[in-house]
Amino acid sequence: MAADETRDDKKLRDAVHDLNNLLASIVGYADFLQEDLLLGSAQHKFAQSIHRGGTEAQAIVASLLSDAPEKAQPTGNKALVEGPVLVVEDQKDVREMMMIMLERMSIPAQSCSDGLAAIQILREKPGEFGLVIADHAMPGMNGSDLALMIETDFPGLPVILMSGRGEYDLQALHERTPSIRAVLQKPVDFKRLVELIRSID
Known about the structure:
Blueprint (H helix, E strand, L loop, with lengths): L6 H30 L5 H23 L20 E4 L3 H13 L4 E4 L2 H10 L6 E5 L7 H11 L5 E5 L6 H7 L3 E6 L4 H10 L2
Parallel strand pairs: 1-2, 1-3, 3-4, 4-5
C-alpha cells in the first residue's frame, strides 16, 4: 500500500475494482442478449434496459475514479490477431464472459486465472499465441508484471491490459513495456474489444 493511501482509500479502490468486474459481466451478457433476441421484442427491450443500467453504473464508477474511462490508442492496421488469444483473469465470471466474446468473434482462445499459470502455458506452447489479454489487478502477479515477463521471455507478443481501477498512461506503459499495446477499461465493451483486437500489430 502506498504511504499516502489510507486504509479507507484502499477499501474504496478495491470496492471499485470489484464493482467493475461485476459490471463487466452484466454489460457483456446484456450485449450478447441484444444480439441474440428478436429486435423489438419484450425480451430485447429488457436486455436494452439491463445494458443501459450497466452503462449508467459505469459512468458512476468513472466519476469515483475522478475521470472518464481511458480510451486506449492501439497501433497498427492488422485485420485479425494471428494465433489464439490467452485470457488471464482471476475473476471467473469475467473470464468466462471474455471467452464468450472471443468465441463470437471466431477467435480461438484459452484462459487461466493468474499470471504464473499464463507464463507456464506460454512456455508449454511457445509461439502459438498471438495476443494476451490480462487483467491488471490480479493477486500474485499483476498484469504489468506479467507483460514485463512476456516482454523478456516472449518478445513481440502483444498484451492488452484490462483495468477496473482508473486510467493508465498508455504511452508511459508502452515505453516501459513495449508489449503493452492498449488498456481496455472495465466493464469490457464488446465492440471496443473487437476494435482493439483487430488493430493490434
